[in-house]
Amino acid sequence: MEGSVGEELAVGCVLSLRTTLNDEIEGQIVAYDRPSNILVIQEGSSKAGARRNVRLLKANYIKDFTFLKKAEDPLDVDKCFIDLAGLQAREDAALRQAEIEAERIGVGVTSEAQSIFDALSKTLPVHWDKTVIVVMNEVRVSSPYLPENVTGGTPAANDRVKKVLELERKRLQARNSSQV
Amino acid sequence: MNPQQGRASTNGYSRRRVDTMTGSKMENKMQPKKSASPNFAGKITGPSRDRLIYVLSFLIGHHVEVHVKNGSIISGIFHATNADRDFEIVLKMAQVVKDASMREQKSSRDNITTPQLMIVPTRELVQLLAKDVSLDEFTKGHSNEKGKDLLIDSVISHSHHLETERELTPWIPDEDDPECPELENIFDGTLDRNWDQFEANAALFGVKSTFNEEIYTTKLERGPQMKEREKVASRIVREIEGQEAHDFHQAEERGFNFHDDLDEESRYSSVCRESNDTRFRETENTCNSEIFSGSVGVVTSKSYPEPSSTEVCSEVQALQNETLASSTSSSLDEDKYLHTDKDLGIYPVSDCNHQASDRITQRSPPLDGESRLDSNQKDQSDKIENIVQDSRASEGGFEGLSANGTLCNPSSSSQGDITNEPSDSQVLVNVSTAIKSVASRVRPGSSSNHVPADSAPNQPGLSPSSSSGSLSSEKSTLNVNAKEFKLNPNAKSFTPSTSARPQAEVSDGSFYYPNNVASLQPMHGLPVGMGVAPFGHQPVFYNPHAPPMQSSQAYIHPNGSMYGQQMIVGQPPQFYYVQGYPPEMQHKGRKY
Q1: What ipTM score was computed for the predicted complex, to two decimals?
Q2: Which of 248-277 (B) contact A at CB < 8 A?
């Protein structure tokens, strides 16, 4: 795209563009790398400490764009540092977090089951065992996750899980019916 | 489109490449190059590439979304990219969030896949979107990285999909909420409510209130003269409250704000360690008049033949004024000293001398109703001190009033400290003698509260004028026949055994008379209302078998503070006195 040629000099420009996938993006150019044809755009307002979206867009997918204004370079080259250790730590933390969250999602279970799992997990320790919800490592709730399907555990625990299950089901029904 | 490819080698390669790139990026950062041109190592460098690489490295560990050519969106944690070549994106824990091939856009409901490592080839890549990248870090590097080391709860518990920032708007109450009471008026309507909680309770739960006001306070005799008495009482109240108070707490309560120079702390929260005055002033209000209404009532009535409370009031006021003026000779008659029953508890504390003497006076009468210290001395704090001390000692348990203090502390255990240092030894002597005489009449017994005879800062303004010999008269001038005195047979006056501190007898603990209450009769003709409190399994009561003390002072539990005083002083129809075994001992059959 011809426009991309000039963009290398246009760091800091605020553009509004549209991609071939019909995404509309408006933001400030952070960088443009011609060999790879990647344009780095930073969206969002310029509040201090704000969190913005950063997009790396392949320039050849830009359908059209509009030059809005010219602003200064968003990156202060002198102040750009990368903390490798910090990055690594952040990545590890993110991975850990993602793994934890992945644990919570049952594979091959219905969304209803997942909702029930989420509701139970608010107050009880639960984890998945294939498609069975295991509560407190004792009580098992299998499909279709009705109070009758609650098995195992001490009677007290069993009853408690049953109760919570009923309550959550009711709540879910109420919610669903109000949404529908 | 399945971007997942088992290119382990490439992964590792990529990762290393990125690391290398970041390393080299840092080296290259400061080398401005005009245009991207391959350097001798074959790597393309240039400021724009540097920037790109910088941004990419910046995003490592971030959750990103990768838009691919066919419209699908993959979400995962950005792990690496092949910056040397084509910038393939390596995502860890990635999932296809939006699959373009799916007709229905169910939000990952039925096509949940386990998160896995995904690599997006360059040719598929349309866009990489990283949301909520902190701007500060972006421009200033990772200077704020420290903040991320602290995991706050929301970080731990929430997924990254939640918005971390919200637009905060001020709360505007709904239009249809007019009942919101203003804060100031929130309690205004409380008294007007037609709602009686007790009724409600009874109706809802069948709970009947067994509250009997008379247990807790002096029984009001509601008779035809009620109005009169009320008027009189309120007048007295007004007079008292209108008096100038030396204690600045009191003053503030009464509306006189003469201690404006004190800061808030001294005014409201700090402990006053000034003269005795203050201490006792503050405690004076804890007096229950009923404590004294019996004995002191006796005293007062006896001592003050005059019935009119007004008179007394005014006299007391005069007393105070005199004291304040530190008049030398205040030959205040004892008559003036005490109020009538109702006001007993509230002794306007001024520099109390006369009041102290009052107390002394009070004390004696209850003892026997006879000895009435002619303590007109008033200004003699020292005398008073001694008097108080001795009488205290003798009376044992009789609430000691400090010479200054109007400490009418019902609890016998409390020691009204006499803080007035005897200034005049001579007077002291007299006082002592006087006291001793009193003491002799007092029921002998161990004194529970021995007033510490030390440390009594001299009362300012006290003039040692009063007749030194005034105290010497041991003759009780209490007018036993004062008409105010009504010995109430049911008065709370509890007369324990020989001493005010019957502990002496029962100190070894269980003093257990198994026979039940009913058999209890007034001992020695003294009206002792005692009931047995069926306590636990074991009804326990105490059998006084000694000349009862007429003081209605707070009864000291003979066993000390086994479990606090279970005595209700006042006008209890039944006098619960529990002593003996602590409850736990009575548990039978509970095996732990």
Answers
A1: 0.79
A2: none
